Structure prediction request, 499 residues.
Amino acid sequence: MQSAAEHKGCRTAAKTAQAGCGSQTSQGDLPSEIWEKVKNHPCYSEEAHHHYARMHVAVAPACNIQCNYCNRKYDCANESRPGVVSEKLTPEQAVRKVLVVATTIPQMTVLGIAGPGDALANPEKTFKTFELVAKAAPDIKLCLSTNGLALPDHVDTIVRSKIDHVTITINTIDPEIGAKIYRWIFFNHKRYTGIDAARILTDRQLQGLEMLSERGILCKVNSVMIPHINDQHLVEVNKAVKARGAFLHNIMPLISAPEHGTVFGLNGQCGPTAQELKTLQDACEGKMNMMRHCRQCRADAVGLIGEDRSAEFSTDQIMKMDVKYDLATRKAYQDRVEDERAASVVAHQQELTQFAAETSAITVLVAVATKGSGLINEHFGHAKEFQVYELSTSGAKFIGHRRVDVYCQDGYGEEDRLSTIIRGIHDCHAVFVAKIGGCPKSNLIKAGIEPVDQYAHEFIEKSTIAWFRSYLDKVKSGDVQHEERGDAAIRQGALISAA
Ligand code: CLF
Ligand code: SF4
Prediction:
């Protein structure tokens, strides 16, 4: 039961490729059967998320609990962002959509059911969908997300359905804290509130996690970080879920704004800042693998994590599109992806060898504009988000992303948007882009953020480490005075698809 949880954390010794999970580039110390499950799952492997896509089908509308960060008009906020209503599908429509997407996006490797309510509050639709997809598209991994209340009742079905990955949202293990997060639960034909509700929910979540771990299902735990309610306590949650065999822990910031109409939105409960989130994730890392690349995506999300192609696959469109699902074509495409992925890892390692025996206590954050494939391949003005890497003499480590408003609108830069972008990457020393115009360039420099466009279309890790070497050289020679950059804002309620 513990083998998944106990392999070492995300990084090996200095100057080697990262091992472990959440951000692994190679099998490292993972047992082969676990590596097979995570290597091309974009949520379970940070490195895979640059190359492989996932999709969700919104077949599960009902929910059996009420979280204070959720408005029932919108998707499940545990695995999807509030703000966009999904188109509900029948299992038969869902399987057609999977085949259409698998035809169009050959690097789509995972099907998740994550709402818009709770997958296990809709067990017939959820398991019927998985059954149909397993028959029609056997190379696609099946993934399920749940609040955990009904989980212990469905463990046998999950195992029988060959669902390899299950996410449970566990925000607390203390019923008194839980009473501040959950308004009610509906369990065994009865509604519970307050501490009673939270106690039942917590017991069922932890029981379900243990049962799945014992059966060899890879479990990820999602936790929503809610300042002044569970932020300090999440370190205890981290220990508890690790002890019960969780493979990966994903601590996500609360998304809360009055216009969402949630309890937290209306009472002014704010989310954490970027540095508050990072500090908590850092505190938990080492104890177990941390996921830092979650985008709190929609219940009908399609594409690479961080892009949203769901609008291309509405029900009307999927009924008209061709299905040419072909295992051999998909495998050939994925083999090419693996070649590119391996080249990126080798380039990063080669760049790191240039540090020779040098070590430095200096670390900096940098922002990167990317469309995927591990490349610096997005224009500053077109970026919907920036990926953030921490650079040290040990290497470039992905630590998160920052959603932003797209700067360039109809060919013109929007001044207001530029200031929100700068606030979003304010803790970064540099921003790497494929291209950038003169106006944003000079504003970034004024804000102390160096725009870097000399590595356009090159690998991210290799390029950022090459820049970092020259940065350290300038610090050593006295040309640059190294200074900490402070904090950055996490944009509330940003909609990737609306940008
Ligand atoms: Fe979907 Fe979740 Fe499976 Fe991924 S999402 S059911 S594990 S395939 Fe991924 Fe999206 Fe974050 Fe979820 S980025 S919200 S962690
Ligand atoms: Fe909303 Fe998901 Fe919580 Fe249900 S489990 S109330 S859908 S956030």
About this structure: Residues 1-24, 494-499 have pLDDT under 50 and may be disordered. The two ends are 43 Å apart (CA to CA). The pocket of FE(8)-S(7) cluster (ligand 1) is lined by residues 43, 54, 56, 79, 110, 112, 114, 143, 145, 165, 167, 220, 250, 294-297, 305 (CB under 6 Å). The chain has two domains: 2-320, 358-477.
